Amino acid sequence: MTAPDTDSAPPRATPAPRPAWRAQAPVVAVVAAGGGIGAAARYAASLLWPAAPDGFPWATFWVNVAGCAVIGVFLVTVTEIRPAHPLVRPFFGTGVLGGFTTFSTYAVDIQRLIGAGRPATAFAYLAATLLAALAAVWLAATATRRLLTRRQR
Length: 153
What we know:
By secondary structure, the protein is an all-alpha fold. The chain has helices at 20-48, 58-81, 88-100, 103-115, 119-152.
């Protein structure tokens, strides 16, 4: 009798990897829910403060600036103060704030102003939104860090 050949044993079955969509389903769900909330809030702001067809779109401007300020506070809070649940950033950062702030409406507003014969207003809006949004993120993040430093003393 010969000894069984151990080198030719069938390979062990490994569990099938979890499909990528299953792993991402909770993230997609919270981003969608948060996006709905943020977009509804932005839409409400546009109804409360409508822009004239050839006027400066103040509601979209302030929504984008305020959203960027909140992003600055939020990111410092969840990255430097206290770790958050893994779904908090996708829900609030990507979903709520991504739905609240809006590049698409910003672009349409610029196109609408140019179409209405207001290229100077369109350019002012383009530049002012960019500068104010960047300043809002930086100022809010800096203020949040300083506030935390004072509290820790």
